[in-house]
C-alpha cells in the first residue's frame, strides 16, 4: 500500500513539472552554446532599472503609421488568419485592445528590416502570474517575437520576460512602468542575410524599453519560440507585424514603422561591405567622378584635380596618364609665369602639391611622380615650405 501511495505522489509531481510553463523538464535542454534550458528559471532575472519620465514619441516624417488611436488606422490590421478578415480587437481611448480569444492581429502591409515603435499597456487589474499576466507579443517579419508581458513585480523565466526575444534572449534590464501605464518599445530589426542558401551576415534586434537599452544588437538565432531551441535559418523577406492574443486584454497605441535600407551585404551601402561589393562600388564612384571631370573643360586645373580624385577610388591607367600629362602642363605653365605673377600663384601651387603628396602617401601615385617632384622643388626653392 505504501509503495502504491509513493508511486502516485511521484506521478503527480512529474505531471505538474511537465505541464506548467517554465518548470524544469519543459524547454529544450542546454547545449554546447547555451548553458541554460529554453525557459529556464535558473537563468538570472533581468535587473530592475527605473526608467526616466515618459515623453511622447510621435512618428518621424516618412514613417508608416500603423495605429494612431483612430478606428481608421485599425483598418490597417486584420485577423491573423486566412481570408483577410476584420479583427475583433477594439479601439478604446486611443488604444487598440486585444479581445481575448479573438486571435492575433497582423498588419495588412508587410515589412522586412525596420525600425518599429509601439506602446503597450498591461491591464490595471493585475491577475495571474508569470506568463499569465498581461501577456501579448510583437512579432517582427511575422515570426520573431519581442515579448510583451507585465513583469512589474512579476518574475518569470528570463527568456520569456518583457522585451525578451522570446525563448532566446532575456532583456538586459527590467525597465517597465506599473501595469496600466504605457510602455514604449523601440525596436530595430535586421534579418540575417543569405545568398544562394549561404549564410552571409547575421540578423539582429536592438530594443529600447522606456528609453532603456534592453536588447543590444542581439544576434538572431532564428525566430525564437516556445519550449523549442530556436534554429538559425533564413527568415521571410517580408512579413506582417503581428500582435499576440495570449488571453489578456493588453492595449497598444502609437505604432509606427520605418523600413530600413538594405545593408552592404545585400545591395545597399550601409554596414560592412564584402570585398566584391566594395570593389564594385569603388568602380562605380570612380566612373561617376571621371564623367564629371570630363565636363570641366573650361578649367584645366580643376579638371586635372577631379580626374586625380577618381584615382582614389580606382587606379585606372588611362586616367593616371591623363593626370600626369595635365599635371606636367600645369607645372610648365607655372614655370613660365613672369616674376610679378609667380608669387601670386603660391597658394595654388602649394595646394596642388598637397594633393600629390596625399596621393603619393597613400600609394595612389608613385612617390617619384615627376610633377610632384617639380612642385616640391619650386616650393623648397622659394622657401614656401618654411612658412606657417
Ligand atoms: Mg507573448
Bound small molecules, by name, code or SMILES, are: magnesium ion
Quickly count the domains. 2
* Helical fraction: 25-40%
Structural class: alpha+beta
- Cα radius of gyration in angstroms: 32 Å
**CATH level-two architecture of the largest domain:** Sandwich
Structure summary, number of beta strands: 15
Largest sheet: 8 strands, antiparallel
Portion of residues in beta strands equals 15-25%
Query: How many helix segments?
Result: 8
Which regions are unreliable across 5 or more consecutive residues at pLDDT < 50?
1-20
Terminal Cα separation, in Å?
104 Å
CATH topology of the largest domain: Jelly Rolls
Quaternary structure:
single chain
Explain how this protein is built:
This protein is of the alpha+beta class and 388 residues long. It folds into two domains: 26-266, Exo-inulinase, domain 1 (Jelly Rolls, Sandwich); 273-386. Helices cover 28% and strands 21% of the residues. It has eight helices and 15 strands. It has helices spanning 2-19, 71-74, 275-295, 300-313, 317-335, 339-342, 346-361, 370-382; strands spanning 64-67, 77-79, 90-92, 95-97, 105-111, 114-121, 136-140, 144-148, 183-190, 193-195, 198-201, 204-209, 212-219, 239-243, 251-259. Strands 1, 3, 4, 6, 9, 12, 13 and 15 form an eight-stranded antiparallel beta sheet that branches. Strands 2-5-14-7-8 form a five-stranded antiparallel beta sheet, with no helix packed on it. β10 (193-195) and β11 (198-201) form a beta hairpin. Bound molecules: magnesium ion (MG). Magnesium ion binds at residues 135-137, 147-148, 244, 246.
